[in-house]
């Protein structure tokens, strides 16, 4: 988790904003009509950090010739599809890594009402944990599996 998304937590976001004033991600996500430009800058910043880490992990070679990224499930996303309405459908989630374990390079649109816990259960199983359920999971995300 990059940071808590509490309403009272301002971040400076060094270099993103010309005035240098701290911004609250929570406030931006709830006031998208007024703060959309700031929110887009912050979202792009976080995506760039994710890509930076992916590239670093891909460059680290393991003893067997694979990369650290190949041997990792690296997930980025949100528990809300729309912060302004607290809507928790259509969640933007990216899963990278897992070479040979997950089907990569695809966009998966799961049926309405599929719990996010299904992804966490799927990842736990891929990492070797013998779990039948996780939180409110109802099954695995089979379209992610090789």
Task: Give a brief description.
With 146 residues, the chain is an alpha+beta fold. The protein is built from three helices and four strands.
Beta-strand level of the residues, as a percent range? 5-15%
Radius of gyration: 17 Å
Low-pLDDT segments: none
Count of individual helical segments = 3
Helix content: 25-40%
Task: Say how many strands there are.
Answer: 4
Element-by-element helix/strand order: EEHHEEH
Q: What separation lies between the terminal Cα atoms? A: 27 Å
Largest sheet: 2 strands, antiparallel
- The coarse silhouette is globular
- Judged by helices, strands and strand pairing, the structural class is alpha+beta
Order the strands across the largest sheet as they lie in space.
1-2
Mean pLDDT: 89
